[in-house]
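User: Before I run my own analysis I want an independent prediction to cross-check against. Here's the chain; please return only the structure tokens and, at the end, one sentence I can use as a sanity check.
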Amino acid sequence: MKVFTRFAASIMLLGFAQNVGAQAPATEYGTGLKISFNPESPKYLRFVFWNQLWCRSIDNNPGTSVNGESTATTNDVALRRVRMLAYAQLSPRYLILLHIGINNQTFSTGGGSGTSGIGGYGLGKKPQLFVHEAYNEYAVIPAIDALTKKVHKYNLYIGGGLHYCNGISRMTSCSTLNFLTIDAPIFNWPLLENTDQFGMQMGLYAKGRLGKIGYTVNVNKPYATAVLPTPGGAAVDNNGNSRAGFSGYFDYQFLEQEANVLPYRVGTYLGTKKVFNVGVGFYQNKNGVKLESKDSIISKHDIGILSADVFADLPVGPKEHNMAVTVYSVYYKNDFGKNYLRTTGIMNTGAKDDAFRGVAAMEGYGNSRVLMGTGSIWYTQAGFMLPREISKKFRLQPFAAYTYKNLDALNQVGNYWDAGANILLDGHNAKITLEYSNRQLYNSITKMTSGSKGEALAQLQIYL
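Assistant: Structure tokens:
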């Protein structure tokens, strides 16, 4: 914690010292790096680049070793995301998008295939770029007619490829550029790296508006999974010759209407819009998991997920103060079969400590936590943009988040919380986020809570 405290203090001083004084989300960037082929033509090509650098101080789970050494605490610097996105409107009817990059490179993990040991191809080095999204889209009924400029109240776009037009919830299609907290809670992507590719699936989708109702529906071919079940054990990710997965999300937008050219849902508008939405969503995949009975009989189980959420981002108080409140709350009901459970740790550098003789946490090692499983999860986050008069150099947005998990595989509910603040040097285009994240731990034998651990994080984000 001392390391984090010193780092946070230096970051705060940097914010005061730099003469970058944006009082609102950056306006000089406009539409970003955009090339218009002809002023008279709707054809354009736009590029987006972003880096998210994390500095961390992690209280490791009991029995953790890092790079072969027993340790209770890990301090590191890591690359959470390094991405590039390009999309082009070839005509008023056609759009093509490509999104590539890396995730999660640490001093000992996240390296390219075949990296190990030390040297030029040592642990954690030379991560490999991969495709996050690649899809084509056609406007059946465009939002705006290119010739008459008439706004269509009812519109429809269809597309296909490796896409992010997800169902389930608003946060299942969240943008990674404008989070309220430092990151997503991860369980908002319940299929992550099992039957999807880092939140994306291969398939077809349709999206658009029916008046104030926004909708996204899709049909995808889930990626293959083949975890073997154990006799009498929990359901596991094994979909065999996978069946089509179906998902959708529908929201009613009471106030201002949100843009839907791209699938990415905004986390906080920083007071630039008046938005209040309620939404519902679902995911269904037949025979998505397998179980094995005590007498070794294999059976299959469907995956079914339902969600309901509410999002509000509203300016408050006198206009000259430029204050705003952001609130998002979502409820998930997940069914992956009997006692299905997943754990994870973001950029986890921890491993088992063979010298440890105590009772290990059920979650595993490092910063691993219970992610999700069959049962219910309720998540709420809230933030407040403080008055512009606090500083001429940056805007300050404190926030907090709470998660309640009631999962069938555990004998006690879990409570998790996060708290921190965004230091907005230039809106979301240049910001520093400080956060402390508290995670519940479970006893591996009783499956009851056995205390908690924390993680202090600082992120520097820049995107163009």
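Sanity check: The mean pLDDT is 91.
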